Amino acid sequence: MHEYSIIGALVEQVEAETRARGGVAVHGVGVRIGELSGVDCELLASAYEIFRPATICARAPLTIERVPARFNCGRCGRAIAAGEILRCPDCGGEARLSQGDEILLMRIEMEVH
Amino acid sequence: MCDSCGCGDPQVVSVDLHQRILKANDGAARHNREHFDQRGLVAINLMGSPGSGKTALLEATAKASAGRFKLAALSGDLATDHDGERLRAAGIPAATITTGSACHLDAAMVHHALHDLDCQERDLLFVENVGNLVCPAVYDLGQHANVVALAVTEGEDKPLKYPVMFRGADLVVLTKADLLPYLEVRLSAFKEALAKVMPAPAPILLSARTGEGLEDWLSWLDRLIAQRRRHALHAARA
Predict the structure, then answer these.
(1) What does the pLDDT read at residue B1?
(2) Which among A52, A67, A91, B96 has the fewest CB atoms less than 10 Å away?
(3) pTM to 2 decimals?
């Protein structure tokens, strides 16, 4: 259940970024989480709900954008489906994850004066 | 305040950031890595389930590598210093990180624990992570390589069930090889499952009890140390 520690880090980051920009309140937070990031979106959402009262995020709903895992051959670029052998059937190159390992803070909706 | 009419309503702006949520941990990990590099120490994050044989692997490594390379270890557990005691009894200078309720080590915990460990003149630092196939994969500790210990008793499907852990592994050590004759698992099925989550799996089948596979493992460590030293040399020249 590392999702709690990720939410702890997220709230600290939101607070620091908001203060640095002269924001006085936060109205929304957007994150991007990859399918192979090791972070479970449901657990992340519930951890956020438990964590956010009494923080700068108390009135800020969390929007989670989920990113599916995609693999491509590192040599020829051919798409390789997740769940298949991670070697290119055409050229034998090693598959690389082109998306799906993101754990990103994307956006803060902040109130400024 | 609202710019357009001066009504006094607060203004809400959307700020685009695109930054890693774990950037504080990433910074601490970078610091650890610099510390390791300055001391010529190669750090390995050793992960795996509880009971997968991580500590036994290190005990066997200490015994088999005497005179070949010098080890040090940090061992993470929710409670007790049992693994630390075992490692010290095997001749490895070791400190324990007791995490309380945390299911993984992070870079700051490793940084603090390094203050209690004398790594002078050591070649390899093993960071034995908390037994867990999920959470430790998410946190960079500053290591140069990830090794996952997977016991053959755990079953062939574990790589498919925990793809994040195995995807990040530089090496998988299939431990408890001496138990294979008593199990209904197939080595080929382990390899096939690994090939679906790692592009270049080359698992080492090893038994800490019989010594099978230990030489392959020590050779892999030799190659890793040599590779890091070459890298350090290039960095110094640049």
Answers:
(1) 47
(2) A91
(3) 0.94
